[in-house]
Every structure is written in structure tokens, then in C-alpha cells.
Structure prediction request, 777 residues.
Amino acid sequence: MSVTLSEQLTRKKPMAVKKGPHEGPDLERSFGTFQLTMFGVGATVGTGIFFVLQEAVPDAGPAVILSFLIAGLAAGLSALCYAELASAIPVSGSTYSYAYHALGELVAMGIAACVLLEYGVAASAVAVGWSGYFNELLDQTIGVTIPESLSYSPIPYDGTNGLINLPAIVLVALCTMLLIRGASESARVNTVMVLIKLSVLVLFIAIGLTAFQADRFDNFWASGSAGISAAAGTIFFSFIGLDAVSTAGEEVRNPQKALPRAIIGALVIVVTIYVLVAVAGVGAQPIDEFSSPEQESAGLSVILENITGSATPGTILAAGAVISIFSVTLVTLYGQTRILFAMGRDRMLPDKFAEVSPRTLTPVFNTIVVGVVVAIIAGFVPSDYLWDTVSIGTLIAFSTVAIGVLVLRRTQPDLERPFKVPGYPVTPLLTVAACVYVLSGLAAITWVIFGVWLAAVMAFYFLWGRHHSRLNSGLPIGEDA
Amino acid sequence: MTLVVGFPPGKDDWSPIELGATLARSVGTDLLVVSVVPTVWPTPVAGGTDREYEVWAEQHGAAAVAEANAILAEVCPDVAAVVRWTPGRSIASTLLEQAEEIEAGMIVVGSGSTGSYGRVHPGSIGDWLLHSSHIPVAVATHDYVGSEHGRLRRVSCAFRGDDRSLQTMERTAAICADIGASLRLVTFAVRGRTVYTAGVGVQAEDVVLDRWVDQATAAQAEALRLLKESENAPSEVDSVVSTGRSWGAAIDRLDWDRDEVLVVGSSSASVIERIFLGSNASKILRHSPVPVVVVP
Prediction:
């Protein structure tokens, strides 16, 4: 059985007959609009808002508020397109899985490269951010700080550099251990964290607004369009998580109504919180203070300290951040392992990645590989280099999804779509446009990193994955990943 | 290969003797029923209080022996049994010493008085033994009652496909073949809870579970193949993978026989060859509706 290269590159994973859930009624959960909205808010808030002001405000100045709106718009549109793809293809998984079914193996591998960047690098970046807040918390509670050489990466950035970011590595190691022990434990931890995240941000907004001065918004347009789009690119990562709503489509009652409402509802809530945080932050201190070295690592906490002159609110915020960012790292690492698991099942990666340990019933090898790689990145690369990489991966994955929606409407017009994107074809086109606009703001170095990574993944695919893919061997397709 | 039964005096707990009788009948051996009474303070010149205490301990022990004898006469007049009381500072370690002394094949204890009926719930004594005995330990379910002249008809062996559980399986299989019981390999597949917010779909854990079921089924098939090749295969061998959202659900989903025990291997965490109950094993233990035998 010989297949041509182009057949190989465009072959799609057939839909497996959907197996019933493993057990009876307890697995049949169905979300309503409200639950789904809350679920989107929980998944999104906290990914980046604790660190993003320090990165984005110096780029855009007060107009950072517009950057938030643009990034939010791009994320919301992408989530809508993704929801159509997810509802039309009855599999469970990440963008990678949907692409494999809808757009073929090569595109799936490209998306996999994006998604691995999204999750892997985001986990590292969040861990680096956690390290800053952790140090701040230590300083304010027991007056001890971890020396710079052990809490900053060796690559210099803004004059701070050390040997290794040890707290970030420890955090990743802890999360890895928790994931190895079993995902059940991790899910329980997660719910509490969402509440902590929200309360801490409300605290910041409430205190931040007391120091509000309207003249801080002078020269609103000073950074121009380039600054706004650059900031939007950086900010985009803080909307990652909204797409989690899209993947829940098959568990939703009346998806045609509930999905757009939930996505838009969650987006409105998240954007409101973010914009309020931005307004409170920008209104509270002069723009150039955002890039000061002490705000680099524990931004929001330091702002509160400056406003009130007392350490207490900043300490509370740092404590909340330390706890909740832990959960973000955990969830991101979890996502990464499960995507690799799906790839292992498809034999796009060695089967070892899909092996379940009999001791813990979790994919231990996979989790350890992810933990080690993420820990190395977190320990040695400053977060500033990481965020944009996360954004580029996500944006390109989402643009591909939007294009995929357009393609599928053409090639498979009869496919049953429980949820159809409203305003077709304007919405997918607008999504692509919004993503491209945000992408245009990203620095050249980000594109280079992305290009190199994509090339590496593609090389792996052509040399290994293409020959081992499960679709080659006629192996049973099994339950979809 | 006498079985040592730990009998708690005055607690109206027949379950260890009931289980001991079923096991002894199946294997064709006898019982040593031991009641441990508090030991006397080892003062060289015993004062009045100490002597009084000694007398009380003796009476207490004698009463326990009488109680156990009465139960034995009612439950299993067909099984040869010796009843004795012995002083000891720790019930669990004294039972273990007694078992070592006669080179017993197993220590049988009850489930304490706190757990729910029909479930295994090792009390402090069982727990101690389950983390230090080098002799197999059988724990009866709370208020276990064997069937009349009952023998084991089936032995389930908790199996997860690693080398250790292969060893456990081989040893269990040999005993099953000896006593004419059928063997059932049981693998539990417990579904983890998906982290919804990770954006990898709401069924990410189902995929992991599916893979584990595949792996377990393959491992079971391989184990059964090995078993068939060996000489001491039981006449009837069966295997099952039971899935559930929790250990309890996965265990409840199986059918269980009244004359059945579940054999669970010990964790590899212990350095020397002795029992150390692992975390999965203790979850299985706590949800088992049949008596559990934990082997080193």
C-alpha cells in the first residue's frame, strides 16, 4: 500500500464512531449558559493579567486599554470560529485534534507546533511570573528574598540577570508531581483557585481606583498604532483560556444559543475586569514607572504598595497571586501533557507519550518530559521573551481554525454543525483580520523563534511522524483524542 | 501452614474466626486463634497492684479463650483449632510474633468496629500489620459471615500489569490450583477528572482511560498466556477490566461471590520482603465487598 506524499500530507483522521461514555448518568454533564460562562471566566482570568501591564504599558502608554479591547475582540472571534469547528467534529481535544480531522495531517502538525508553543511556553512564562510574586511575598512577610542569582535567568533583560530561576523550576516540579499523582486531585484544586484569582483582582481594582488621576491618560495616542498593536500582541496571551469554552460544545444544552452567549458573556466579563485593572493601574502611577525594575517581577503588588504606602494590600495580592498562578501553571502543564498524549495515540509522536503508568493511571513519562522541558525554559529564559512566543503560537493556531471553518463550509457543506458561527462569512474573515493585525505588532525576533520551531516540528514530522502515523498502518483508530 | 487468627475478646466480632474458618477449610489446614491481653509491668518485685493486674489479665485471657471456643464450636466444628491467650504490649506485634513462631501461612484479622457493614476497614491492628508484616494478612469485611461449610470458590487477584503484580498472580494462581478455586484477574481503570479549563476538551481523561484499558487488557492477556504455560494453572481462569469514576465505582461494578477473596499485592516501597500497603491497594481494600488478602 503506497501513498503519495500529498496524500499523506492531506490525509484526515476519520471520525471514529462515537463510543458511549464509560458509565451511566454521572458522566452526562450538560452545561447551561451560565455555567459555561463562569467556566470561561475561570479558564481565562489569571493567565496573564498579573504580569501583562508591565510588558504592555511601556509599549502602548495609556492606549493600552485599546490594546486590551483589540486582543479581546480577536480572542472572542477566534473562540466563536473554534466553537463551530469543535461542534461539527464530534471528538474531544485541542485545536490539534480538530485540525487532524478536518484539515489533514500536515496542517494538524503545524497546529500542533503552535499549540505546543502556546501551552509549553505559557507554562514556563507563568512559572517565571510566579517566581517574582513569590519573592515579593517572601520579602513582605518574612523579610527574606531569594538572591538575584537564584531567582533570575542567566539571559540578561532590563539589567537583571542571575544564574537560574530556582523558584520557577521548583514550581514546575511541584505541578509535575501533582499531575503524576493523578488528575482528579488537580481538578479539585482548580475550582478554589478561580475564586482567589477573581477576589485578588477586585482588590486591586478597588484600591487602585482610589489613586486614580485622569491626567495620567494625557497623551493617550502617543505610542501610535504600532504601539497599540505591539501591546495587543503581548496582551493576547492573557485571553488564552477562552477557547476552553469552545471545546466544551458537545456537553452543552442547545449549543447554537448557549455557546455564543457563553463566549461573549465570558469575554465581556473578562474584558471588563482586565480593562478595569488597566485603568486602575495606568491611573495610579506615571507610565514610565511600569518599566521600573522592581515592577518587572511583581507588578500589581508593587503598584498597590506604592499607592497605599502600606505593605498589607500588596502582600495580600502577592499571596493571592502566588496561590492562583500555581493553578494556572498546573492547568497549562496538564493541557500540554494531554495534547502530547493525543499526538502519541495518533503516533505522530512516539507511543511512549501515550503510555499510562499502572501505578498512578496517568501518563507519567509524558508528564515528566513536559515538566523537564518547561522547567528548563522557566529556569533559564526571562519571561519577556516568552509571552510574545505564546501569543504568536495561539494567534496562528486560531487563524488556521478560522480558515478551517471557511474551508469546511466549502468542502463539506452538508456536515452537521450543531453550532454555526453567526455572521458567516464575515466573522471568520474578521477573525483572520483581527489575528493578523495583532500578529503584525509582534517583534521580528518572535517570528524568527516561531519559524525555527515550526521548521523543527515539520522536520520531525517529515522524518518520523509521517512514517509512523497511525493512519499508515491501518491500526484501529480507537477513541478520538 | 497454620493460620493465625487475631481474636478481639469481648467485642462480639466473629468475622476473623469466620474468615479464618473459610480459609482453613479451603486450604485444609488448622487455626491458631490468639487473643492478646495486656502484659504485666515487668517490675522485679511485683507489688500488690501488679499482682492483682496479673490475675485480671489471666481472667480476661481465659474469658477470651472461652468465648473463642464457643464461636469455633458454632462456626466451624469441622476445622481443627487451638485457642490461646497471650500477654503482649502490642496486639499487632504479638500476633506477628505468634505467627512467626509457628511459621504460620497467614494472619487473619477483623475489620474493627467503625467501618460500614460488608466493607473492609482495617482497624489499628490491621493497619499495623498491613504496613509491616512479612506474612500475608487477611482482613475480613465488617461482620463477615462465611457460608455454611464454605470454601473459597473464586479468588480475585488485583492486577495492574507490572512485574510485582505478575509475581502476586503467579503465587495466587498456585494456591488456587491447589485448592480448586477459580482465579480472576481484576484490573481497575479509574477515570481521572478532566481539568475543563485547560482547553483540551471535556473528555481528555476518557482518552487516557481508554488507553489504560487497552494496556491493561493486553497485560492481562499476556499474563494469562504465561499462566497457561506454567504447570500450576487453576482450572478456571478469567480476567476483567473494570472502569469507574472512582475506585469504589470500579469495584462495585464487578460481581462478587460470597465465597471469594480479593488478593492484593503490596507496594514496592518496602525495602525488604514484607507488606507495605500502597495508595492504590489501600483504596481497593477500603472499597472491597469481600475479604482482602494482602501479600508481601
